[in-house]
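Recap for those who missed Tuesday's class. We walked through two folding examples back to back. For each one, the amino acid string is listed first and its predicted structure tokens come directly after. Nothing is annotated here on purpose, so try labeling regions yourself before you check the end of the notes.
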Amino acid sequence: MHPGSVVRQECLEKHGLSVTEAARVLGVDRQTLSNLLNARSGISPEMAIRLEKAFGLPAREWLIRQLDHELAEAMQKAEGIDVQPLAGTPDDRQGAHERG
């Protein structure tokens, strides 16, 4: 779930705020908040601080939710990420480099 959905449910709906009212509380313009709520943008560190100050949930928690969401999206594409595993131990690799 995109963290904007959580902001909508836990902050706006829970407190009976419109997007315009919540944007004013957060000190951002309506479009900025709308972009977050509609999953067109994520929670930045600054927005996380604003959410903490306005609604109480620690900024770190908002950022963890954002990171979890981004990681889940990336994991859906993991099969298409081509990386060759690094073989051996650091000592093995150092010896191979010195030999040649």
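Example two. Treat it independently of the first, because the proteins are unrelated.
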Amino acid sequence: MSSVCVVDHPVAGNCLRILRDRRTETEGFRKEMKRLGWLLAIEATRDIEYAMDAVVTPLDVQVNCPRIKDDRILLVPILRAGLGFVDSFLDIFPAAKVAHVGVSRDHDTLEAITYLDTVPDNPAAFDRVFVVDPMLATGNSSVKTLEVITGKGYRPEQITLVCALAVNRGIEQVHGKFPAVKIVTAVIDPELNEKAYIVPGLGDAGDRLNLI
């Protein structure tokens, strides 16, 4: 997987169509965010580590199949919008652990401020870390979260940032400090507006997921 992967799939595009539409209400927005999260989770874990395990089929034939140790996966949603992808990952990796990083943004300076951190202090317990947040805009929140995670001993090479939409400014900000972190997104939009919202984007994902 290259350092940036865009999931170019018709189903992902259809999810984005519904998410972008201002007429989509909270229930539909949550449903499509979860559906898109499944596709992103599959792509983000394309290179996941696994062991081979022998099973016997109903035809009494033994066959070797991959076994994923999902209890060694750590999900880190950036609050609050990142919660929209957690269930998607847990549907596929039910034994994964979930930590939370809360980041608020100063709307004047766009500075990211951490207000919550539950990332475990035992990086040896995890093989992969997936940071999930629907929007990679300025990159400030993502960089702040990556600083929290790597500050506890996690290696950038084991971290993947998963988002629905990104812009080049955010990608460059992340890779400027963490070049080894992989980024998986459904689309790269052209720009940010004066309020640092992705354009054309889909509005404020946190507000649309939670209504308030």
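Answers for example two:
The domain at 4-49+67-210 is CATH 3.40.50.2020 (Rossmann fold).
The radius of gyration is 18 Å.
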